[in-house]
Amino acid sequence: MKEARPGMVSFLGSGEAASTGRRVHEWLFQQLAPPVRAAILETPAGFELNSAYVAGHIADFLRAHLQNYQPQISVIPARRRGAAEGPDNPQVIAPLLKANYIFMGAGSPTYAARHLGGTRAWYTLLARHRLGATLSLASAAAIAMGTHTLPVYEIYKAGEDPHWRPGLDLLGLYGLRLVIVTHWNNTEGGAHMDTSRCYVGKARLDPLLSLLPPETTVVGIDEHTAIIMDLVAGSCSVMGVGGVTLVHGRQEEVYPSGSTFLLQELGPVRWPDPGEGIPPEVWHEALTSHTEEHAEEEETIPEEVASLILSREAARNQRDWATADDLRERLAALGYRVMDNPEGSRWERLRG
Questions:
Q1: Which of 13, 66, 68, 292 has the highest CB neighbour count under 10 A?
Q2: How confident is the model at residue 292, as a pLDDT?
């Protein structure tokens, strides 16, 4: 089994169930070894009476628009801390142990941070990511992942004075001190009301920035735009219709869609030890599941199949697409599916 490395992290400003979101999900799916096993956490919208619908809508979207990948999708309630079906119930969060794609989206950032932080679900998510799972975080869930969380509902809807709340600090162990603000370029308020900066407006957010520790980087993500962080490669890429704005103190830098930049632009990067910051029993459980999962994937294949896979890879390297397609069909006839991604080819045994 190859050494486990952390998975991708994607922050999406909005549009997780729109055309831009589909392209982001698809690109991330392409980086995974099949099958895609997606887990969708309800937690950010757990206070809403229709939280099951909110998460189910994303599940239906992925099934309908990315059916070529035949994703195996689980919706995990985990709506509130202390509840019978909450984020500390091992049976409720069990699908996380097999997930290689973990999604959270709409809801309340402060609610998500309050009801996930320190729970078994949160530590299992960290462990799965450390072992290679991709994290796909949109809107409210993305905001909750920073060192500080913007209390959007409290300021925009309830009229509280602008302030910060503690965040989940997803990337703190990697040395990054980030604050995430989605809906950065929102214009729903029209000419008479500034709803940018996730509805709180520039005039209210700017004074808040001066209250953050000086090493903090604010990541402002436009709507229908994603920043995808590849921790292993040390790079970030911007995908979608808008841009990503990095704010360091009083300096701003905008990266438009299609651009890439070094992860170090977000701050000094460190590499955590395996299991660091995760309770030993949770890390052991996740590591055991990961080992069993890859033992199944690394089953012995017939010599003929192995030879065809190598021949097809050679044809692809020579850009002999006709031969590569022919070899793909021969492999399918023998019961094996080959999927290509930028890192090479991966295979799986067809079931049925």
A1: 13
A2: 80
